[in-house]
Structure formats: C-alpha cells, structure tokens
Amino acid sequence: MWDIIISSLPSLLEAMIKYTIPLTIISFFFGLILAIVTALIKFLKPHGNAFVRSIWGILRVIADVYVWAFRSTPLLVQLFIIYFGLPNLQNFIPGFNFEIPAFTAAVIGFSLNTGAYASETIRSALMSVPQDQWDAAYTLGFSTTQTLWYIILPQAARIVLPPLSNEFIGLVKDTSLASTITITEMFQVSQQIAAHNYQPLLMYTEVAALYAILCSILTILQHYLEKRSSRYLKGDEG
C-alpha cells in the first residue's frame, strides 16, 4: 500500500503545482475583480443627470442577470457550456470559429462563478457599514469616491475577509471539476493512476488527503489574516 502511495505522490504533487494551484489563484484573482465591480454597480446609487442614471440602471440589470444566472446553475454545467458549448456556435453562425483551450475555459468558468457569489458577499459587507460613516465623511468634505476608498472599503474589507477566504478554499476543491474538461489536475491524475493500479479507494483517499492538507494550510492563513485585520479592534489583544 505504501509503495503505491509513495510512487504516485510525485505525479499528484506535480499536477497540484502545475494546474490546481495556478488555476485557483488565477480564477480567484479575476473573479474577485469581477465581484468588486459587480458589487459596486449594485451597491452605489449615482446622483448624476438622467443619462448617467439610465446607464447605471442598465449596468445594474446586467449585473443582476449575471449574478442570477451563475448562482442558479451548477458550476459543472457552466464549464461544459463554455468549453463544449461555445465552439458549437459555428453550426449556427456562418464563419464562426471559437476554440477555447481547456485551461482558459476553466479560468473563465471558475472566475465567472466566483465573481457571482463573491459579489453578493462584498455587497453585503458594504451594506453592513453604518450610514453614519457616509454622513460623517460628507460632513468633512469627502466626495463619494473618497468616502468609498478611504472610509467604507477598509471597513468592508475586514468584514468580507472570512467569507472570501471560504470562497477561495471552496475554489481549491472546485478545481477538481476541471478534470471533466480534460485538464490533468490532481483528481484526473488520481483517476489515471487508479486505472492502471486498480486501487481507486487508495488513490482517491490520497488525493483527498492532499486537498485536505492544502485547504488546512489556507485555513491557518485565513485565521492569521483575520487576526491581523482585527488587531486594532477594541478588546482584541492580538
């Protein structure tokens, strides 16, 4: 048993370093940018002229539809639509040729899915900052942008850190779905090895242990960041 575990470990670690970790980091980075933009569109209420309000209203509808669509459908289905479905448009649109590499399709799918969920988390954090903070900033002569950047976002960042960390850890585990669109990440490598040594229980347990170790490290980092971000709160001795 140990011979199988030790012999398969280098291949699994290689897949982790080559695909699982980069896929998680890149997808979360783009997903977080998308989440912040979407959350701000849904949170802010511009007071400009009618044209600006109309444009903002259209953007808000687009943001609402985007969040609804990706929170209402399974991630696996989204990956299949992006990787297998979009190239099929060439059957309906003459001259259309849209081939997406598997890794790119996975990044797009994970980023869009993460952005939809994280945007609601960020929006909730922004809404949790008391209105008094806005009023006090306006009294001091701050503009809306200055208030958001210097007053609201720093407070919201501390609030949103735990749930966003959970999103990141969840994304690590969700990358196993990338195996369904031909990416040889850890789970697919374990499947390939199991097909040769006929030890599926052993291989799947080993890859589960690797995911657990990786997520445990991230959990420890999450607790450290939470402690650091809360060190100035009253009553916090850390």
From TrEMBL:
It is a multi-pass membrane protein. The keyword Transport applies. The chain crosses the membrane at residues 20-44, 65-86, 98-118, 201-225. Residues 17-222 form the ABC transmembrane type-1 domain. GO terms for cellular component: ATP-binding cassette (ABC) transporter complex. Keywords: Amino-acid transport, Cell membrane, Membrane, Transmembrane, Transmembrane helix, Transport. The keyword Chloroplast does not apply. Gene3D superfamilies: MetI-like. CDD domains: TM_PBP2. GO terms for molecular function: L-cystine transmembrane transporter activity. SUPFAM superfamilies: MetI-like. InterPro entries: AA_ABC_transptr_permease_3TM, ArtM/GltK/GlnP/TcyL/YhdX-like, MetI-like, MetI-like_sf. It is found in: Cell membrane. Belongs to the binding-protein-dependent transport system permease family. NCBIfam families: HEQRo_perm_3TM (TIGR01726). PANTHER family: L-CYSTINE TRANSPORT SYSTEM PERMEASE PROTEIN TCYL (PTHR30614:SF0), MEMBRANE COMPONENT OF AMINO ACID ABC TRANSPORTER (PTHR30614). This is Amino acid ABC transporter, permease protein. It comes from Fructilactobacillus fructivorans.
